[in-house]
Amino acid sequence: MKRLWLWIPLGLFALFCGLAAYQLTQPKDEFVRSTMIGESLPQFDLRPAYASLPGAATADFTDGKPKLLNIWASWCIPCISEAPHLERLKASGAEIVGVAIRDRPEDVARFLANYGNPYSRIGADDLSEVQLAIGSSGVPETFVIDGTGKITYQHIGDVRAGDVPLLLEKLQEAGQ
Amino acid sequence: MIRLLLATLLATLLAAGMAVPALAQYRLPPAPYAYQQLENPAAEAEAQALMETLRCLKCQSQSIADSDAPMAGDMRHQVRTRIAAGEEPEAIRAWLVARYGDYVSYAPTVSETTWPLFAIPFLLILVAGILLWRRIGRKEGDAA
Asked: Which of A103, A157, B52, B55 sits most deeply, having the most CB atoms within 10 A of its CB?
């Protein structure tokens, strides 16, 4: 009986090693999710990032219609691959407000000329202030904002073809 | 040989071309207080201490004080301007934790998920103490 007791620490140690080995083989989730879901959009009022479109402010999100808030940048490579899917979201009736991070107007204009413009407004966030205030940790990220200015969903990374129906569904949910 | 050289040259050019858009995030000058210390040394020391315990979200194993990522620079600007405006460092940390969760802070806190880390060492010391006490107690008993 006493012999059996002696094996317990070794057993625990083996269990610990097994757990560590298992965790090492699992892919690491590097996403830092925003903890602002369910909270109100922070206060901001950004100047236009692009001459032909208005800037973006918190007040634009309280007109009763749910919208997408797309955090992006002309220097962001995945933003190029998400551009056609944002177009599809727009074609399906989604209104997309852009926030361009650390961007110059000429770079924004060049990006929109090359890859299309799905935005109704684009605000320029030169100091990543809105990005920090909303809990976004990179570009691109897409938030669903309901008609009262409450954040209801966060999509991290580029929007891919499979994400389009999900985002439309989240928009519809936000409108109910 | 020449073919190999050409291929290397082409690959280098391609790599350089790919890097251009990503580098464009550096086209805007860094935020005013990204690399500029506060004039008041006491406030700067406070800001520095806080920045060393905040995680850079782009390069997640570095603090924002260590990172040259533009986003870390923008976070340092945010920290320094808030400290200069008289905000308490812990209030700024709380503001960030409210947005990114505990992960953004390197300062250990006792919370719902972290309490075992603090409890287990005490438990182990307690168990070791009990074992030791029993063993020593038994030996003294044997001697008597």
From this structure: A103
